[in-house]
Amino acid sequence: MAELRFSTKQRILGAAEDLFARRGFAGASLRQVTAAAKVNLAAVNYHFGSKDRLIEEVFRRRLDELNAGRLRALKQALAKPEPKLEDVLAAFIKPALELSLDREGGSAFVRVLARAYAEHNERLRKFLSDNYGHVLREFATAFARQLPQLGKEELYWRLDIVAGALTYAMADFGVIKRRSGQSEREFRERAADHLVRFAAAGLKEGSER
Amino acid sequence: MAELRFSTKQRILGAAEDLFARRGFAGASLRQVTAAAKVNLAAVNYHFGSKDRLIEEVFRRRLDELNAGRLRALKQALAKPEPKLEDVLAAFIKPALELSLDREGGSAFVRVLARAYAEHNERLRKFLSDNYGHVLREFATAFARQLPQLGKEELYWRLDIVAGALTYAMADFGVIKRRSGQSEREFRERAADHLVRFAAAGLKEGSER
DNA sequence: CTAGACTTCAAACGATTGTTTGAGAATTTC
DNA sequence: GAAATTCTCAAACAATCGTTTGAAGTCTAG
């Protein structure tokens, strides 16, 4: 976490990500963050302006790439001759899996992401909606095309459940622990496969299958 | 929230539940809680001893009844001549639905519950595991009997996803808003039905169906 | 080499945190 | 109705919070 080879700004972002994942935004203090980053306390306000802006930058650093990856994967999936529901789901899930495999704090970030759902923080919601709302809208359109037999309301119900399950699974909650012989990558890829098949089954249920 | 007809202790628990749901355990201060409860600041430490113990009592007040209801429903479901997977799922989900319909803060509590998942707080996890772990173990056994074709590891994968989706859906996250003409009860019952069918589809997927 | 910009630092700011105190009010017990 | 117990209250406790300050350090451009 110290890692003095990184710049002050990067070390703060890394330490903040880790501590926000473990103690929440209110629960992690700037003194804990700067101590973990081996940086002076005032550096946060110098480089980011405030704690709130630091939180936003923790998101921006990862979400820019994550959502770009999702859109890329979606475009690729829809370019296939006969794109399936599973392809659209995988386009949403797999980039998040890749992120969670990032050596430098990616797995911490997906837990931060899960916290953002739990926090009903108005300021944070606006920031996320303003910057990344268009991605979710594109996926909603793609899902609607894959599931034409579902009413709009019904579709939103199911997508909401899928988004929740995804957030939960990616955050590594719950009882599942990987077997000791299994690599992190194997573990995560199995997780993504399970989630895609599980979500597809739930989304299709009641339709013609 | 004020509701002076309730005792000091009950008013504190109600206000704490509401504020923990909205701002988290670290984010809600005892001064905010006691102000909302129209109670003196010192009353929390007098009646509960500390903020941590107050948090535990917020859980205990609801979880005793919720988990008793789940075990009752599970017993009833397993007493049927041919219990189905959907029956076991409903036994887990429906009591939570009932709780979320409780006029006096039930819907706030399910959001508190979702926060407890997000918090990796060791103390809280131990409290929940010590007091209610046996309920989850009974359900795991029942699910295993309904899905004998699934390996133990595979089953745990899927149950974890179901638990996450349930927590998420019950916490009323996400984009779904009920139509203005729809009652809270109608809305929640539709939610539970969707969730049971969705979860059942995902749990069975890949088996004989 | 120097002037200027950028970055780090220890120290302190006022505000807020959970908790404790001891006096007083309210209630219960006999 | 007096004594004892339970509860409420304003006030203060030390600790910690996010933020600001101004001086000292480091770096870069001319």
> Biggest β-sheet of chain A: count, sense, barrel?
none
The overall average pLDDT of chain A, rounded, is 86
Please tally the β strands of chain A and state the result.
0
Class by alpha and beta content of chain A = mainly alpha
Work out the radius of gyration of chain A. 19 Å
User: What percentage of the residues of chain A does DSSP assign to strands (E)?
Assistant: under 5%
Quick summary:
2 copies of one chain form a homodimer. Chain A has 9 helices and no strands.
Report on the architecture of this protein:
The structure is a homodimer of 209-residue chains. With 209 residues, chain A is mainly α. The first copy, chain A, is built from 9 helices and no strands. Chain A has helices spanning 8-23, 30-36, 43-47, 51-79, 85-101, 106-118, 122-146, 152-170, 184-204. Chains A and B meet through helix 6, helix 8 and helix 9 of A and helix 6, helix 8 and helix 9 of B. Chain A binds a DNA duplex (30 and 30 nucleotides) through helix 3.
